[in-house]
Amino acid sequence: MDQQQQLAMVQQMRQNVVGTDAALQPSSTYAVTVEEVMIPTTKGDARVLVYTPNRDHSAPLPVFFNMHGGGFILGQAEMDDPWCRLIADRADCVVVNIDYRLAPEHKFPTAVHECYDVVKWVHDNPESFSVNPSLFAIGGHSAGGNLAAAVCLLNQQRGSELPIVLQVIDYAVLDIATDPAEKPSYEVAIPADIARTFNAMYLETPQDAHDPLASPVLATSLQGLPEVLIITAEKDSLAQEARTYAARLEESGVKVTHKEYKGAAHGFTHFGDLQIAEDAWYRMSDKIREAFSK
């Protein structure tokens, strides 16, 4: 499939993708202020949504950076809007929700570097959002979880210049090198042919799949990475690679909290049972607040 055919397919998928109005909504509302901001990066200006809790604070707030899912080729920051409100309120932090560039128009590693640059810019310009530049956490869902892990690995490669104290990896793809058909299969899982197509559109060359910034589970060293909360869904073909990553992180001395939701499928925090989804979101926000309080 050439680039033009890829674009035509993706544009059709983006038109047909389930809208955010069909997704789960939190059972409570949260008092936060949301601002759309453009942040300069090496890949061009990045659009972000910034969430600030509506309460008085005596000190600058820590920051959680969020990346949405969508297989690297679909989705937008608004997909996570209601949940970013929840995190900002419950974790009492500023949330920067990154609307990163999508493939196939912008292939790997564009999104990784764009997300990294957003974190770096906020670190270098804390007065812009009145935040604490020494307390950052980062996380994402599905493809966004991959990007969160990749940003932490890139930070490690660059001498840990960014003060990331926690990473949240929610049912993420962490191994793009393995053929999806060779991963565990469930009736409710992402079909292997779709996963294979998404991966191919994300990568510039097949060899890129073996780059740890594309497949974090293949990283040679995980020493010194931030504490991690890993969330998996039992009926997800991606759960095993997350379990593997969790085990490797623990072996490297990284503190790992792993929660698997029994009977849940990929994407359960956005589509599925609200009670189970909210349990996961509460777990994420509580862990973020705990990491910031240390």
Structure keywords:
7 helices; 294 residues; alpha/beta; 8-stranded mixed beta sheet
Overall geometry comes to: globular
Low-confidence stretches: none
Query: Helix count, per DSSP?
Result: 7
Largest sheet: 8 strands, mixed
Query: Which series of helices and strands comes N to C?
Result: HEEEHEHEHEHEHEH
Radius of gyration over alpha carbons?
18 Å
The proportion of residues forming helix, as a percent range, comes to 25-40%
Q: What is the end-to-end distance?
A: 50 Å
Mean pLDDT: 95
Strand order of the largest sheet: 1-2-4-3-5-6-7-8
Helix-strand category: alpha/beta
Oligomer: single chain
DSSP strand count: 8
| DSSP strand content | 15-25%
Structure description:
- The structure is a single chain.
- With 294 residues, the protein is an alpha/beta fold.
- It is 33% helix and 20% strand.
- It is built from 7 helices and 8 strands.
- It has an 8-stranded mixed β-sheet, with helices on both faces.
- The chain is globular, with a radius of gyration of 18 Å.
- The relative contact order is 0.14.
